[in-house]
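Honest question from a wet-lab person: if I give you the sequences of every part of a complex, can you actually get the arrangement of the whole thing, not just the pieces? Trying it with mine:
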Amino acid sequence: MDLGLQGKKAIVVGGARGIGYAVAEILAREGADVAISARGEDSVKDAVAALGRYGTHVVGKPCNVKKADDYKAWLEWAIEALEGVDVLVPLSSAGGGMGSEKYWHNAFETDVMGPVRAVEAVIPVMTQRKGGSIVLVATTSALEAMGGPQAYNAMKASLITWGKQLALAHGKDGIRVNVVSPGPIEFEGGNWDMIKGTMEKFYQSQLRQQPMGRLGRPEEVAKAIVFLASEAASWCSGSHLVVDGAYTNRTHF
Amino acid sequence: MDRPVTHKPVTWDTSKMDVKRVVDVIRVTPETNTSRTPVDKAPDPELGHDVIPAARYYSPEFMMLEWERIWTKVWLLGGRADDIPEPGDYICTEIGKESVLIVRQHDGSLRCFPNVCLHRGNRLRPEGIGNAQAFRCMYHHWTYGLDGKIERLPDLCTFPQGGPPGMTLPSLPVTEWNSFVWFSLNPDVEPFDDYIAPLKDHLEPYHPERMAWKRDVTVEWDCNWKASVDAFNETYHVQGIHPQLQWYLDDVNVQIDCYERHNRYLIPFAAISPRVAMPSTIPPAIEEIMRHAGMDPAEYEGRVSDIRRDVQLFKRKHGKAQGKDYSALNDDQLTDDYHYMIFPNVALNVHADDIMMFRQRPHASDPNKMLYDVWVFELVPEGQPWPERVKHRRFKHGERSIGQVLDQDAYNLPTVQAGMKSESFPGLWIGEQELRIRHFHKVLDDYIYGPGGKQEGDL
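Yes, you can. This is the full assembly:
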């Protein structure tokens, strides 16, 4: 199956590690030009260097999504550097946390306004180009209780609602919008790697709840994201795809 | 990186170890050190690579030698000075088969006596702290004053030989230092200042007298006391039995300093071990360090790798307003674990805001058992009420938890003790990261066999 990504231009916000890096890598491998951001200068540099091996145009620059003006400037820069944009995957996240009101602000700025500002930046360009594909990344923690009452889960949940609205609003311009909710994903340096080391009992309890007896890998989510981002998913819009190895208990009617 | 790394505190090549990253730790150097506590790397002693014989952990003969040549010769930790502020306040503490009374006198000084009635040998007091006007033996009411003199000997006229010599309990050396009391079973022990050298400069800046009891626990462990000392003298075991600490401290970039009989190591805390990948979110245990300092981890905008330095700067800036006087400490001491071993049996994790220390006591008769005392003290900020003293608790290993990390240590030790008796185990195969263990055993050797006197075939 041809994904039709050859020559496409993709922005991955938070593309230096984990699922974001895996998305950027598959996009580059499939022939797309890619722009990535991350907080750290070194991590962006390393990721851009690694992604360069697929021979497409890969650019990156560090950016703190929480700083709205810098972030908007970064988005403009990325669109300019790629000379357009066909695919947007904004997945930087402030992560979880309880016990401080600040976590709500962090989650709002990063997990909500991160995608919102990116979408606002790409919609005019995609409209002009008569098409585009946006994949928002939520979480299974929005669907089922996980980790206690916290901003992360609630803010991520808003993306599921907003993603559908976007799809309805921009379908007429050929822009598709989908949402992917990954379950727990493990990779070196990721949260579940740390949880495995620091809270082994909790980690094991999660493992026992996994029908396949393991956590997911970044590329297993990234493939689903890239599929939805690609031309191969031309009739998928407004959908919400849970990629969790059947981890969540709910049934998807 | 506002300070250059100039001295080489770590002697092994961290890049060749089982690590994922090579980390340059920002450290206070001898040039930038603002504390009386030195940070200079002591030259590593040449201690060879011999196996340390396993039999010294279970041999009754070696236990006897330790008793004769160490326990009855050196200065020993008795307790906390602020437990006995008033005349008549006493600490009754045991070491091996002996028990002593450390008593506050009317003039404020301390005296120490064996806790034994000179009549028929009864113990005068059970272990613990208390207050007494006099020490009256329950058996026949022989009564000793706070100074150890016999005040009353009922029916003295029925003892034709008179009372025991001098009508007094023998006096044992005792002193007070840095909020702790120290005693010796050796009447001819060297001056305490000579014995503790060079640690006065090291430990006084922590001002333990500003800290209050937080925990006072004694656990009976099924291992030799030295197995416990060893367990806290190296960070090599972190990757083995404390994997969670790799997201809390740097177990690889550790400075070891061996002195004449004591030693220490300096472990960066609020750091990520080079053995694991750098996480992008703050580990919960490091969040606790930040909260304790008064920082909100949710507000933190820096990188996880910058947290240690930022906590130092934050504490330096805000400590005073929090009633915490850090002026005697250098920046590293505001986060790191300066871990001391005071020979033979005291391990101290000293921190700016707390001290967690262990006193590791031999069993009275069984080399396979020991008493593990956990003492924790916490800084009481100026202007805050001094908390009530915690109660002492005593139990056997496994009956109760003593916290995740210490449980992990404790869980392991009985199997170490059992395994050491194997015919196939000649002794400890010690690496560079375990230099303090080798140094500890060298000091033991010097006490037992005389300096350099250990012969081929000696345990």
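Two things worth pointing out. The first helix of chain B runs from residue 60 to 71. The domain at 14-56+207-449 of chain B is CATH 3.90.380.10 (Naphthalene 1,2-dioxygenase Alpha Subunit; Chain A, domain 1).
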